[in-house]
């Protein structure tokens, strides 16, 4: 019975994520850890963009497992010309302590990733619905094409297969 329940949850997440493909990423404005305002997807049009999202502390911890592989693949001396953002979403009662959360993030995240780490503060309901962010303790990733349309989605813990799929899509578009 547990296997069936787990399989149903996995299928729901997969179907939810796949349903987002082809849609334009919703407008989201936040501030990087370098205090630069960024509006997704408006400020990233013209380049592929990888966006990782977390909206709970547990999801944020899982998102951090993506930092090094994403940095090595898409940022550090990369052959790819890709915008990359890790987004921490702060909403509700936590908005009152957003400054404290930001200070902790600046201390806990490697400074080379500060310009790639975005803090969004505000309501998240529309993003949860529009992007299919069903499991709050799960990080979500979206690969956007040059026009801001979602061309690949994945969620959960890091795996080589997930990042390789994003690379494959970018390479195919470059040909």
TrEMBL record:
Pfam families: ATP-synt_10
Entry annotated with the keyword Membrane: no
InterPro entries linked to this entry: ATP10, Thioredoxin-like_sf, Thioredoxin_domain
Signal peptide positions (record): 1-19
Gene3D superfamilies: Glutaredoxin
Keyword Signal: yes
Ranges of residues in domain Thioredoxin: 19-175
Alphabetically ordered keywords of this record: Signal
Domain of life: Bacteria
Name listed for the protein in its UniProt record: Thioredoxin domain-containing protein
